[in-house]
Amino acid sequence: MEVTGQAFEDMQEQNIRLIQQLREKDDANFKLMSERIKSNQIHQLANEERNVLQEQTNTLTTQVEAQFQVVRKLEEKERLLQNSLATIEKELSLRQQALEMHKRKAIESAQSAADLKLHLEKYHAQMKEAQQVVAEKTMALEQEAYKYRRVQEEIASLRRKVERAKKFEMVDRADEVLMEEIREYKDTLTCPSCKVKRKDAVLIKCFHVFCFDCLRTRYETRQRKCPKCNAAFGANDYHRLYLQ
Ligand SMILES: [Zn+2]
Ligand SMILES: [Zn+2]
């Protein structure tokens, strides 16, 4: 009896222990289940996340391709721009050469212009000298002509004197000679322009003598030249002459 009770107690104890164990296992099992659920949820979330990332990746890949295309276009553009840059640089160097050539030509032209100016000034100086010489010669010539006319007048006067002397020799009657002489003196005192009035005015340009009226008339009718020698005269060049 005792043994049976002991065995029963043992069995009960064992039973309790087994129940305890079973409960523990249940707990563990429950824990595992809940963990599995959690892990499933995590897995699903991860899948979703992966899908999102995949989409993002696709989008980014598309963007990258687009960017690549843009880069290719930009490279193409750069090539074109470099080509045109090279062309422009070539043109620039050509223009600079032309510019330098023009500069050289301008300098040469300025040089030759200066030379020509120098020549011109020399010619001007020569021309002035020549004009001076011509003026001097003209003046000398005029003086000579004036002298010549005076000499001719003197010759005429001498001729008259000679003729008078001859008449004194040839003619016996003194009366006639004297009459002749009186006539000559009258002539000498008469205006040679109008041959009527007495001489009473002188031209101080040439010192020829006429009547005042003749000279005034000539002045007023703008024939302002000496009737004898053609010397020009002005308002202040004819004056009264008082013989008495
Ligand atoms: Zn007169
Ligand atoms: Zn005169």
TrEMBL record:
InterPro entries: E3_ubiquit_lig_Bre1, Znf_C3HC4_RING-type, Znf_RING, Znf_RING/FYVE/PHD, Znf_RING_CS
Regions annotated as coiled coil: 71-168
GO CC annotation, single: HULC complex
Catalysed reaction equations from the record: S-ubiquitinyl-[E2 ubiquitin-conjugating enzyme]-L-cysteine + [acceptor protein]-L-lysine = [E2 ubiquitin-conjugating enzyme]-L-cysteine + N(6)-ubiquitinyl-[acceptor protein]-L-lysine
EC identifiers of the protein: 2.3.2.27
Keyword Nucleus recorded: yes
Domain RING-type: 191-230
Main location: nucleus
Metal-binding among keywords: yes
Molecular function in Gene Ontology: ubiquitin protein ligase activity; zinc ion binding
BP GO terms, sorted: chromatin organization; protein ubiquitination
Key words, A-Z: Chromatin regulator, Coiled coil, Metal-binding, Nucleus, Transferase, Ubl conjugation pathway, Zinc, Zinc-finger
UniProt family annotation: Belongs to the BRE1 family.
Protein name per the record: E3 ubiquitin protein ligase
